[in-house]
Amino acid sequence: MISKTGLLASLFCCLWLAVAAQADDDFSLALRAEQWDTLRHGEALLKQPQLAELMQRWMNKPGSVIELRYPGGEEGEIWVHELMDWLVALGVPSTAMQTLPGSGTDDTIYMVLIQGSN
Question: Which residues contact 63 (CB under 8 A, 6 or more apart)?
Answer without folding.
Answer: 115, 116, 117, 118
